[in-house]
Amino acid sequence: MPIHGLDPALLAAPKPPHFDIERVIRPNIQALHPYRCARDDYQSGILLDANENALGHAIPRSGGTEIDDMLDVDLHRYPDPAQVEIKARLAEMRLGARDKHGHVFLGVGSDEVIDLLMRVCCVPGKDRILTTPPTYGMYGVCAQVNDLEVTKVPLRVEGGAFQLHVDRIKDACSSDPSIKLIWLCSPGNPTGTPIPLRDIKEILEFPGFNGFVVIDEAYIDFAAEGSSAAKLATEYSNVCILQTLSKGFGLAAIRLGAAIAHPALIQVLTNTKAPYNISTPSAMLALQALSPKGLEGMRANVKTLTTSREALLREFATPAFTQLGVGASLGGNSANFILLPILNRQTGEPDSQRAARIYKSLAEERGVVVRYRGNELGCAGCLRITVGTAEENEVMLKRFREALENM
Ligand SMILES: Cc1ncc(COP(=O)(O)O)c(C=O)c1O
Known about the structure:
By secondary structure, this protein is of the alpha/beta class. Helices cover 34% and strands 12% of the residues. The strands form two sheets. Strands 1-7-6-5-4-2-3 form a seven-stranded mixed β-sheet, with helices on both faces. Strands 8-10-9 form a three-stranded antiparallel β-sheet. α5 links the parallel β2 and β3 (149-152). The longest helix is centred in the C-terminal third of the chain and has 25 residues, at 292-316. 40% of the residues are buried. Pyridoxal-5'-phosphate binds next to α4.
């Protein structure tokens, strides 16, 4: 059955040749005729088609605050369902060409795209996904919501390496054709470790797996140049890269995430999404963020945060911390956080109980909230600390030392 709105020529000669999208996307989704509205055909005139409120909103102006500018926007109209300009700017930034906007899908944060990918590919109660713990928790949560079992192929965790077991991933997929999605996170959360592109390509080209390989690049802006797999989406039909404006761009509040993939998958996601998922205020802010000046500002902020990350790593490696039982950081340190093991002061071994006590004392007695990750695979005793502002980092280091001294 042809995928609605898709030029069948786009399905000819996929790379890799074994990949068949029509065996991955659920039949009910392939058959879907997306929601249509009159505005798809007519955008001007007296618009009495969508049951909007003709009088507009009634939010009072407060006089001179930034929100007043926003109140002049057509907030009573439904937003543009296509948002082509945002997609074109993302395509230019990530793929080097505006006209590749057909490779981009926009979601309400990457969290919406994570759920949508499971819904379009996996039959509840039947299909499975594969994850590589330790990893981002939402893959498991969305799998459970969608009634999907999870096959776990842990990362190689020894010494905080956090690398893929490519052969084990291949074995798991070839012995279970119900696995439809492989979830990789690069740089990983909580590992901060980028996945080498050669490992990703090896999985993409493995003929024993006919599904999508999803690479979640939420933290990619903090990693070294050349770490992103985004450009593979213009070459391979079976890869989907997730990105977000929540991290490098500092826009977690506007909820804007993106999938970058072959136009066939983008068409399927577009057919399935709620028609007006990206709000007009979010779209306006995203366009500004993706303007030349916005990009310049984002890159400057990323530079400041990565410089602070390195300074924090140096500080935690000094005797002032190591003598109090802070171990060498784990993982690749290529995101806007660091992962630190707390050690037992007698044995020198990672100590999750001590880490949990420090976590609680930091939050409840010292006003600093970090994340306890001691229960994650390969992360015994670990706390994950987001890089803050210079002032926040300074206070955090001081309070951290106090907490270490006291427990
Ligand atoms: C790996 C990873 N992916 C996705 C997300 C969610 O991003 P968004 O804000 O775009 O939904 C997060 C948030 O922490 C994350 O760590």
